[in-house]
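Predicting holo structure, heme C bound.
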Amino acid sequence: MKTWMMFAFVSIFVLSACSAGASSTISTAPGVLPTVPPDYAGKSNPFGSDAAVAGAVVFKTNCVTCHGDNGLGDGPASQTLDPRPANLAALNQKVGDDYLYWRINTGVTGTAMPAWKGILSNEQIWELVAFIRTLK
Ligand code: HEC
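Done. Tokens:
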């Protein structure tokens, strides 16, 4: 009897540890955003908010298909994607420049979101960050 109880206790512990581990790696869990890695944490936009004008053009060319004209995650390609593209207007309220800069650079593993580092210039990525800041 005691052995069984011990086994049950250990199983519950292991299961809960596993599920806690899993949920922290799922970036889209409601309300749970991943931590910005040290390489990106604390960075702020060196080009300022004026870069949003150029960012709008870069966004239209590279991002609208998935994220939609207003960044709501409702672009023409969004219907077929799982997970769906992020609602950048909503995300904008919750994160800092460093978060956006990191996500655009490295993409989101396991989703259709590409890593834009090497495809877009560093300046274009900051322009996108400035543009996303204007989304409501
Ligand atoms: C092929 C479709 C596609 C394109 C093109 C695309 N994205 Fe994404 N994007 C996604 C998907 C899918 C996600 C992941 C959503 C999730 O994690 O649930 C995502 C996630 C993101 C995130 C992170 C959201 C979060 O919650 O952390 C940002 C920021 C972002 N995209 C910005 C951009 C920008 C800027 C561009 C253009 C340079 C772009 N995306 C182009 C599909 C796309």
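Residues 2-25 form the longest helix (24 residues).
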